[in-house]
Amino acid sequence: MIGPSGTVRVMVATKPVDFRKGMEGLAMLVREHMKADPFLGAVYVLRAKRADRIKLIFWDGTRLCLFAKRLEEGVFRWPKIEDGVMRLSAAELSALLEGPDWRRVHASRRRSSRRKPDNCGPRCGEVNQWHRARRQAGANML
Prior knowledge:
Elements: E1 10-13, H1 23-33, E2 43-47, E3 53-59, E4 64-70, E5 85-88, H2 90-98, H3 124-141
Parallel strand pairs: 1-2
Antiparallel strand pairs: 1-5, 2-3, 3-4
Protein name: Transposase
Pfam families: TnpB_IS66
């Protein structure tokens, strides 16, 4: 998607809005209903009542931008909350725009680069054997 980077905050209005509004009208709704400033660089996601259309507005540093998408078939999956605001990760926003259920997408987790010490004490081998046996038992149950 052309637009904000992956580190941007994504705020979702859970209540449908009037889709006849343009950028300025949607920015006003963000201020009034979401209690947020549309000119701070966050992405605001709004949906139509039928949930087949969404609009994103965001400030790119020089101007207000509007992104709109309409599905020919189906609807966008939306939170069950009737009113309010929720946050999405950049990965969840991308999944929402692509069409699958965005709730199944999780933000990437950083793996620790810490290594286990070579000499971890007399019980280290016993503990590792116990964990290996538990994993194998779980795999055999499937």
